[in-house]
Amino acid sequence: MADGKRVIVVGGGLAGLAASIRIAEAGVAVDLFSMVPVKRSHSVCAQGGINACNEVARQQGYSEYQHFDETLIGGDFLNDQHPVLEMTNWAPKIIDLLDRMGVPFNRSHEGYRDLRLFGGSLFRRTHFAGATTGQQLLYALDEQTRRFASEGKINMREFWEFLWPIVEDGRCVGIVAQDMRTMQIQSFRADAVIMATGGCGLVFGKSTNSVICTGGAASRCFQAGAWYGNPEMIQVHPTAIPGADKCRLMSESARGEGGRVWVPSKKGDTRKPKDIPENERYYILEERYPKYGNLVPRDIATREIFDVCVNDGMGINGTNQVYLDLTHKDPQYLTEKLGGIMDIYEKFVGDDPRYTPMRIFPAVHYSMGGLWTTYTAGDYQPDAPLTEHKPGNEIPVGTEPGLGLKMGAHNNAMTNIDGLYAFGEVNFAYHGATRLGANALLSCIFDGLCNGVSVVNYVREGDQTPASNLDPSIFDNATKQEQDKHDKLINSTTNASGDRSLNPYQIAFELGEEMNSASTVVKTGPGLEKCLSKIEELRERYTKVELGDGAMWTNQSLSFTRVVGDMIILGEAIAKAGLLREESRGSHYRTDFPERDDKRFWKTSVAKYNASSGKSDIEFVDVKAGLVKLRPRNYGKTDSGPQKTEKETVGAS
Amino acid sequence: MSEAEAYSFDADMRKANRKKAVAERSVIFKIKRCDGPGKPTRWESFKVPIKEGANVISSLNWIAANPVTTSGQKTTPVVWDSNCLEEVCGACTMVINGRVRQSCSCLIDEYAPLEGDTMTLEPMSKFPVIRDLWVDRARLFNNLTRVKGWVPIDGTYNLGAGPKESHDHQQMRYTLSECMSCGCCLEACPQFTKEEDESKWDTSFIGAHAISQARYFNEHETGKKLKSDRMDTLVGEGGINDCGNAQNCVKVCPKGIPLTESIGAIGRSATVHAFKQFFQGKK
Amino acid sequence: MSDNAGPIAKHHFLMRRLHSLTGIVPIGVFLIMHLTTNSTIAWGGLNSRAHGEGWMNRAIATFQHEVSFINNMPLLLIIEVTLWGAIGFHSILGVYYAMSGKGNTGEYKYSGNMRYTLQRLTGYFGVFFIFYHVATLRWGWSFLVPGGAVWSHEAASSTFAAALQGSTDGFTGWGLLVAVFYFVGVSGLVFHFANGLWSAAITWGITISRPAQKRWGVVCAGLGAGLMVMAWASVVGFATLDYDQAVAVEKAMMDQPAHAELEHEIEAGSDTAMVDQQDVDG
């Protein structure tokens, strides 16, 4: 490009692709780094849909502003309010754009975009493309990216792993990355770097996330000085299919259609489920919640299932699994109503859920927390925060761009490091303590499209020295730093003791087990302290880790072993912030502090890496609010009754 | 049974295997290994304990943590490509017991139900091997560029909604849009052959995957604007006419995409395109 | 496409579609006519106007009559050369295209895949067979014929039977081989045509939906089955034909000098009396 300015985007999911397209379109060269061909990014796994106000809902009293209000209450007011307002205002336009890109959104019989109900709202505001909305959106952006790549405006670097952000005088000027095939480590200059690297499900061992969702890239930025916001806010979905390799989501509609959750009453009963008579089954939710039974809200279901398995040890055959039973229903009916998910279960588990009870367990699904980012607030500045918005109330603010965020302000979605941005799931700002279903796709694309403009402006208008004019030694040193780390790991293959406790897969496994049991659904002070000491032990062992493969070509073990160290560091921040947040809010539930404590904790937990101790320091800073007044998160008081509205509020898709 | 499954080979046999699967058993994994391009290939066997619900991925994970062959030889963890493990990303495609499929959805119970049964894992044969089971499918994505697989929108600015579309038309397009570029159709295609020379990619057979995607974009009101360009490619060397109608593609497609219908549809477009070109075209 | 690409690449689409087209017109159409003519040896007995008494004699006569008719066509050589050209074009391109694929029926035992491979095998074999067939029977390369029979259009049945049987008095070992070769050859070509017709409908975009492809498949299979019966009937008919009997019938027909002229008039239907005449002659 004429001015020689370049932007690096790390991650090729929805956020990274949206950013790349927006920036390339503005005429700034983009280098797009991804560990997988971008079409295979984790965004493909999203199913449910994408929220946006639409004409039908609007004429029934819905508005962008109400979407905004819903997102805040959903997030238990831990969200940064201004970016959320801007995002919900953009939402309908984002849908239009995706529509123009050719996303096959489901259609009504008249040919308009079809809509479905989703959690946290009484209005149909969720647009969808079958049961694979994430896949369809990602493909649309992938196609546009391919178009720009074919025109030379986006330089694709697929199968490259991000290793380190190059920070010079508090400003990010490039990255170090490694070609996962040739193992070549190289520094790349950039006038701005966007992290769009998604979540960190693998820290918890098995999750609903893809295998690249280690949080490794975010952890490396964290170690390089970027702050990490609300690390403890991890969303756990109540019903997933536990697999030998990962957990796959099982839609909640199974319970809606009459599914019953149970375990054998007798601990360790090894009989087949069909052989266990009715009076020897413990219907967990029906017995504990006679009124709502299996249709209790998601967070309760998640906690109870967890409690029965982890605390009481009553899971099937002593494992962390319970039955989700639909076998009392007519198979034909099930095929009609739940055909899609029946097939998924059958394909991956091998049993037909029409005849054999499904075995499910809650699973880590999404990280609301992420790299801490800042912004410049837009023009909407009410004199005082507003109370709850209800349909029909006057809408206090318009929908034109620039009301929530100042459009194009250099620091929108920028981390505490100048020139280092965080977009999508790795940006902590939007979802607070719990994300509403079908808001994830929105926040990813919004970040790319809206805040991509900020990146362009920062690169073009900023008075910083262009990266291309910086001293090469900065980049050479960064390469060397990473090469040394790499070589140290390679060298661990010689004279290896073979000690099982130093096996990286073993360390990762133990980390996952510990994080999953102590820092997800139900947390306690002592549990988190134990978790932190376990992490300490793992960290100690990791310093002597022994790599199993010394190859200098396509060494996946090396990549994995390296990221295990980063996961340990991130895990520590997650557990520590959870320990220090002595309240219950959204997904964060402490049995020893079961109430929300706004006085002490209506605050963002900000983790800062302490390089000397190798651990995180947690600070609590005020949430950036001012638009909407804090109120109790109480879905029960809405007109439709508690279970109908709340059951969909946790978890996406 | 879903459409995709109904098409897949040996569905009944695999179902029967599930029923007779022995609970605690060991299965031998025979894996074709290669340290890198140009390096010799070798076979290594691993004895893997199989637990309930095990699939190829979990078995490979086990081998990664215990890389010792059946003859007691210590070796390196097997390298393979994977990501979502839900059969929507397409990454973990490989040749299992001789036929191509995703390894994440490949349950051991369906293939090796008894103690000592063997699973054979090989990399896809139509793409260059990077290492072990990991192949370089860049050509597959290049083929999407060949057919200009995108909708040529004016830009990302707010210009209102896209074209209206009927319910049935959307359903048809949705079926095509589920393609995850896994490459099963290419691996099973007798006309799609391995081509390591990148300069020959643009004249080598493009395969069902890109043909179907071309149809997908031709069917969109705005995507149609590039139809003529797409057809120029598809009537050229390595285009639609190289199809030999073996129709393996549709049989192995894990998503049940009607690839052979796409081939027929593009065939018709090609006929029309050629006549148009002849009687009123530029050249 | 690069400018220095060969003619096949340069006119890729045209070549491909001509390849497809020539398989149907003229080759496929000719195949249907050829098999119809040849199979008269099996059903020509139905022809009550044939020069012969008894089923077999009438069959021999009918066949001879058809062959004579063809040989009396004006500009026959042009028709022949066109046909040879089309077959040559279809064969050379076909072999060239077929070489670009690599069958995999070992791993993927689907019926469509089997047909794909069979289409190519029958193509290769068909080229060989047609060459032998035309060279020995049309160009008179009798050194390739066991027993050295030379085909004559004036003694069509007998000379063909001799070529198939390896001698003028019954089967020899080599003759049996030729007969089997013919059997396999024509079967393969019939399959090749029927399957090609099915696949051409997809190539040209005539059948798109799966049900349409299936329905057209049934039609092609039906046509193929019909042609196959004719093909087998022809081969079996000539392979089991009694040489002397055929010679006798042919001789009788040749002894009718006015034969050809009469025939034309009968064809035109101008004089029904001639029909009686012919019957008497027979």
Most extensive protein-chain contact, per-chain counts: A-B, 72 and 72 residues
Terminal Cα span of chain A: 40 Å
Number of self-contained structural domains of chain C: 1
Largest sheet of chain A: 6 strands, antiparallel
CATH fold title of chain C: 3 helical TM bundles of succinate and fumarate reductases
Write up what this structure looks like:
The complex is a heterotrimer of chains A (653), B (283) and C (282). Chain A contains 17 helices and 21 strands. Chain A has helices spanning 14-25, 55-58, 64-74, 81-100, 133-150, 216-223, 253-256, 284-288, 298-311, 331-349, 440-461, 472-491, 504-518, 525-542, 556-580, 598-601, 642-646; strands at residues 6-10, 29-34, 50-51, 115-116, 126-127, 154-158, 160-168, 171-179, 185-189, 192-195, 228-229, 234-242, 247-249, 260-264, 281-282, 322-325, 358-367, 370-371, 420-422, 603-610, 615-622. Helices cover 34% and strands 16% of the residues of chain A. Chain A has 653 residues and is of the alpha+beta class. In chain B, strands 2-1-5-3-4 form a 5-stranded mixed sheet, covered by helices on one side. A two-stranded antiparallel ribbon of chain B has the order 6-7. The radius of gyration of chain B is 21 Å and the shape is elongated. Chain C is mainly α and 282 residues long. Chain C has one domain (16-281): Up-down Bundle (3 helical TM bundles of succinate and fumarate reductases). Helix content of chain C is 72%, strand content 0%. Chain C has helices at 7-10, 12-24, 27-38, 40-43, 55-71, 76-99, 111-137, 156-165, 173-203, 210-239, 243-254, 259-268, 272-281. In chain C, helix 8 (156-165) packs antiparallel against helix 11. Chains in contact: A-B, B-C. The interface between A and B is large, with 72 and 72 residues.
